[in-house]
Amino acid sequence: MKIVILDAYTLNKGDLSWQGLTALGELTCYDRTASHEVLSRAKEVDVILTNKVKLSADILIKLPRLRYIGVLATGVNVIDLAAASAQGIVVTNAPNYASDSVAQMVFAHILHFSQQVAKHDQAVKAGAWRGSLDFSLTLSPLHSLKNKVLGLIGFGHIAQKVAKIGLAFDMQVRVYSRRQKTHDLDGVIWQSFDEVIAGADFLSLHCPLTLQTERLIDAQCLAKMKPSAVLINTARGELIDEMALAAALSNGTLAFAGLDVLSIEPPANDHPFFALNNIALSPHNAWATLEARQELLAITVANLTAYIEGGTLHNQVA
Predict the structure, then answer these.
(1) I need a labelling partner for 299 at 20 to 30 A (CA). Which of 57, 99, 142, 244 fits?
(2) What's this model's pTM, rounded to 2 decimal places?
(3) Cβ count within 10 A of residue 258
(4) 305: DSSP letter
């Protein structure tokens, strides 16, 4: 069995072992694959593993040998699932491998705003503390999280972990989701979308990208938020109207934003966010802790092993 990974670098930068996959077949790894290279690299393989390299119907029809696609992520929008099913190609994904890591990044952004560690670190190293008349130097307001309102849009695995952390900080956790989900968290309050938006001191997005949620956070929504509020997005960049957010941050409608995802990645050099000092951008790496990548690889191996052995398929989406 021939296996190819089309974009291996983001998963394994040399700090993981491919042994689990090499035990299953003849493995070829490409760090990155451009769209025009997909056919030449995949035409003789039985299995494709991909994270962001797209496999459209036009490509799949030219790969008659292909029997299995393993998506190295949770989202499967890079695959034409209908075309894959029509050709009898099994498609699997890797759900819930980075929930802890992404929840951790949510609070990295929240604490970045609340504690201003980076700003004070830079000032101390530049000599501001040495020249201070007082033992304690505070250059901008610091904020306790206790009793602050943490609003969550969506309440899947990641959001539930974020809620647990928020409750540990004695925050008030308020949630909007299309469906109320079973959970074991005391203190979570369910509200309407508008109530969560209007009441949140920190608003964190955890919903999938759909036609209904694209640009969910637009100018009208931002106008309903507290001017002191902070917006966090570790889900999908397209959930936010970025031009509207840039305007809100510029004119004081919103205090701060912490984003791990953008609508186009990587962004252009002239992106308006780069001119703002009240936004923090992490480069879509909330998912990429060593531990999360180890779990992703383990799930990928387990999915493919189940397929090869003909048993119950894990995480099949097509």
Answers:
(1) 57
(2) 0.94
(3) 24
(4) H
